[in-house]
Amino acid sequence: MTILAFGVQADERPLIEQAFGERRVHSLDVFLNADTAPIAAGHEIISVSVNADLGADVLETLAAGGTRMIAQRATGFNNIDLAAASRLGLTVARVSYYSPHAVAEFAWTLAMAVNRRVVRAARRTREFDFRLDGLLGRDMHGATVGVIGTGKIGGAFARIAAGFGMRLLGWDVAPNPECEELGMEYVELPRLLAEADLISLHVPLLPETHHLIDREALRAMRDDAILVNSSRGGLVDTDALVDELRRGRFTGVGLDVYEAEAGLFFMDKSLEVVADDTLARLMTFGNVLVTSHQAYYTREAVGQIVDATVRNVEDYLAGRTNENTLVAPGLPVPIAD
To answer: How confident is the model at residue 337 (pLDDT cuts 50, 70, 90)?
Structure first.
């Protein structure tokens, strides 16, 4: 049996091919969507990346072609129509856990890069311009950080913040005792937005968190605040963010995700005209740093993702489900993450 893997990055390919061992895997760099779904015909098992389109129409094409199991190499599953998958009798699994340090550390990389104007400084020095004008940052020590979502990743982010000597504010549906031990004070979201010098997002994308950072939330933030999003693009109303940036607000914004990233991120668009006006405007601001959904992309995290994907496939072949199984014949459909 050949497992077809969509959206495989060059660094990821040898890890996937080695991990599956005797079971053959065919790796593709194209992403799964309505146009590429017919490629899966004849493959009982496919694996997909986080930006795969697994809407009802794609799932119907996959099922008609003989696919019975989908192993997603990601934690979030808001891109999957789970009700349609259940109706079609498909088994769908995700990776429910991988290194939270990978994402937390990268969120801090974005925060420090925009705070200390690292990108601007690097561009200047490559041209032998060693002036300091416009590079003034601030100490993180003694500043206030607002952590929105204090699960595994948010908790790891908070531990780093504590190491900087920061005042910790948190917002979540339930407090994390480990964060409370660090001295985190849980507050209502409006207060966190108003008081935090740095705000970092670590909540899943759910209907109730879509555009959690909307126009009202952005206007509640301090004019010199730093905003970091390494979770899901849909948490931030990007049009509203652009409007606030045009007003000269915020010390910096670091975005590893974008709400319309599908069809852009993980691809080379350098020779094309990108028609996304919102993203194009976002890129024009010198205090904004956009990266291509790479926060998870460490050797340790990708290795854990691949290992979990292999286990999901092995359990499917053995007729078992595990904690990563989202949909399988006979199982209820979970709430989207």
So the answer is: very low
H-helix or E-strand spanning residue 110? helix 100-115
Determine which one of 232, 244, 249, 259 is catalytic.
Answer: 232
Give helix 118-126 / helix 100-115 axis angle, nearest 10°. 60
The answer on 215 and 70 residing in a single domain is no
115 and 39 share one domain: no
pLDDT digits (tens, 9 = 90+) for 36-95: 999 999 999 999 998 899 999 999 999 999 999 999 999 888 889 999 999 999 999 999
- pTM for the complete prediction? 0.90
Same domain, 285 and 304: no
147, 42: one domain = no
Give the residue numbers spanning the domain of 108.
100-290
For 308, the token pair is 């979990």
From the list 309, 261, 234, 264, the residue with the least C-alpha distance to 15 is 309
Q: What is the DSSP string of 113-133?
A: HHHTTHHHHHHHHHTT----T
CA 30/CA 28 separation, integer angstroms: 5
If one counts the domains in the chain, the total is 2
Q: Output the CA–CA distances (angstroms, integers) from residue 50 to 103, 212, 261, 273, in the order listed.
A: 15, 21, 11, 24
Here the CATH number for the domain that contains residue 23 is: 3.40.50.720
Residues 205 and 307 in one domain: no
Catalytic (active site) residue 101 = no
3-state secondary structure of 244: helix
Same domain, 94 and 108: no
Known catalytic residue: 293? yes
Show the beta-strand stretches assigned E in 21-160.
24-27, 45-48, 69-72, 91-93, 144-148
Catalytic hit among 43, 117, 202, 293: 293
Could you tell me if 135 and 250 lie in one domain? yes
Q: Are residues 84 and 105 in the same domain?
A: no
